[in-house]
Amino acid sequence: MSSVSASSAARVPLNRFRVPRRFLRAALPGLSLALVILGIGELNPRAVSYFGLNLMLNLGIPVALATIAQMFVITVNDLDLSIGTFVSFVGCVAATWLRDAPLLGVAVLLGGIGVYALLGAVIYLRNVPSIVVTLGMFFVWQGLAILILPKPGGKAPVWLHALMNFRTPYVPFPIVAALVIALVVHAGLMRSSYGAILRGSGGNPSAIGRAGWSLLKIKVTMFALAGVFGVLSGLALIGLTTSADANIGKGYTLLSIAGVILGGGEFVGGRTSPIGAVIGALTLTLAGSLLNFMRISPDWQVGAQGAILIIVLAARAVINQTGGRAS
Amino acid sequence: MRLAGRIDLLTRPWVWSYLGALLVWLAAIAFTHGYGAGGMLTAALALAVFCVITGVAQMFVITLGPGNVDLSLPANIGLASAVAMKVMHGSDSLIAAGLLAALGSGIGIGIGNYLLIRLLRIPPIIATLSASFIIQSTGISYGRGLQIKPPPGFAAFTTAQTAGIPLLAIGTAVFTVGAGILLHRTIFGRSVLAIGQNPRAAWLAGIAVERVRCATYVLSGALGGISGALLAGYFRGSSLEIGDEYLLASIACVVIGGTSVSGGKANVPGLWGAALFLVLLLTMLNTFGVSAGIRLLVTGFVIIAVIIAAGGQKPLR
Predict the structure, then answer these.
(1) CB count, 10 Å around CB of A115?
(2) By the number of CB atoms within 10 A of the CB, which of A21, A281, B13, B209 ranks highest?
(3) What is the mean pLDDT of each run of 10 residues along chain A (327 residues)?
(4) Cα-Cα-Cα-Cα dihedral of B110, B84, B56, B176, to 10°?
(5) Where are the domains of chain A?
(6) Would you say residue B31 lies in a domain?
(7) Could you name the CATH architecture of A28-314?
C-alpha cells in the first residue's frame, strides 16, 4: 500500500527508464518459452516439428484454459483453489452425460458456470475470503466428480474428440488454439472499455465503485468467466484423453496459479496478462518434455516447473531492482 | 437475551466448532446406538492431532496477513516422513536422530521459503508454491521406492494411549497451550499479530518485521517436519502423499477455528474444536456408510457454510 504512492510519485522522473523495464517484464514470459523450445530443439531437433510440437503441446491447451480461468479470479484479487477439481468435474460430465444425454450434460455444465457466478456474488456480498470458499468448493466438485464417475472410464463425445484432434495445415493445432485463446481474452480484457473496468476493480475497487460501476456485477462476471474457461478446459482435456477420471484435473489448481504468475500476473492490483498466462501455461507444459530430452529422471518434472518459476521470478526481481536503482 | 447470546456465538465461530464436534459425535453414536462411542473419540483424537499441529503452523503464517499461506506444508511433510524413516532405519536407538533429521529438514524448508520471499520479493503464496514443487521432486528422488517401516518403539509411541486418550493427543494438548502462550504472551507472538494487523504500523513501532516473518516460516517448516515424522510412525511407514490432505485440512482448521484469514487475529483453542469437528464429521459419515463422493460433498458444504455464517469480516484497517 505504501509502495503504490511511492511508485506513482517516482513515475514522472522515471519515465525514461520505465519503458525498457516494462518491455523487459512483458517479454520475460515469451523469452522463457523460447528458451525452453530452443533447449528442446538443441537436444532433439526432430522434436521441434509439426508432429513433435503437436504431441508436446497438446496437453498445454487445457492447462492454458484453466490458467485463463484462474487469471480472471486473480484479477479481482481473489484466488480459486477449486479450479482443478472443477476441471475434473467437467471432465466426468463430458465423458458421461454430455455423450449419452447431451441436453442434460449441457444443462449441468451451464449449472456449473452458474455456481461460479454465485460464488462471486457470495464472496462479494458476505465479504468472505475466496480462499476458504473455493477450498470448500474443492471438496464439493471432487465429491460430485466421484459421484458421477466412481471408477475411471467414460468416453469423450465424438465431436469433442474430433475437434481436439483436428489437424490444422502448417501450424500445429495447439499453437493455433493457444493463439486464439490468448488473443480473444486479450481483446476482451485488455482492449475493451469494460475490460478496463474489470481490471480496475482489482486495482482500486472503491474508486471503481464510486465511479458508479456495480462491484457485485464485476465480481459475478469475473467468476462466471472463470467458470466458462474452467468448462472449456475440462472439455479440451477430455477431448484429448478420450476417457475421464475423477482426479484428472487435480494438479491444475497449483499449475494454473503458477501459470498466471509466470505470465506476469500479480496477486493484487488487477495487473494481469492473458497472453502471458497462456505462454506461462505452455512453458510449464513443455518443461516436462525438456527434461525428458535431457535424460533427467521424470522424478524432477515437478521440480523443474518450480525451478522455472523461481528463475523467471528472480529475473523479474532483477529487472525491477535495476529499474529502482536508476532512480 | 437468547438473541444476544446467539449473536455472541455467531461472532465466535470457534465456539461452533466445539458444538459441531459434539453434535456430529452424538449423531454418530445415535446411529450406532451407543456402540463404539469411546473408540470413536479415541480415533478422532489421534487423527485430530495431525490437523492441530499443521493447523498451528498454518495459523502463525496466515496471521501474518493477506497472501501469507504455507503451500509447501504437504511436500514438507512428505519429505520429512521419508527423511525420518530413512535415518531411523528401523532401529529404536536412532529415533531421536530421525526426529532431529525431520526437524532439520523442516527448518531448512522454512528458511528456503523465507529466502525466496525475501530475495525475490514475491508473495509468500507463490514462494511456497514454487518451493513445494522442488521439495516434491526432492522427495520423489530421495524416497524412491522406499517403504521403510518405523522402528517398533516409535510406532508404539505414536499409537500409545492411556485410558482411551492417545499419548500423542496429550502431548499435542500441552504443545497447543505452549503455542497459545507463544502467540499471546511473548514478543514474537504479539509481533506476528501486529504485523498481520498492519505491517507498516508494526514496522514503525520498531518491530523487526523481517526477522519475525523469517521466524514464522521457520516455525511452520519445523512443525511440518515433526508432523511428517509422527505421521510416518502412526501410519507405519513413510510416503510422499502422506501429507497431501494436510494443506487443505490445516487451512480449514485455521478458518473454522476462528482465525481471521486476513491476518492479525488468531485463535488457538478453536484449532482443537475445528480439528475434532472435521475428523468426527468424517467418522459420522463413515458410520452412516455413505460413499466417498457424499463425504467430500458434505465436507465442502460444511466449510462453506461455516465461513458464510462467520462471514462479514471487516478489515481491521
Answers:
(1) 17
(2) A281
(3) 43 52 81 90 86 87 96 92 95 93 94 96 90 91 94 90 87 91 93 91 90 94 97 95 88 90 81 91 88 81 85 84 56
(4) -130
(5) 28-314
(6) no
(7) Orthogonal Bundle (1.10)
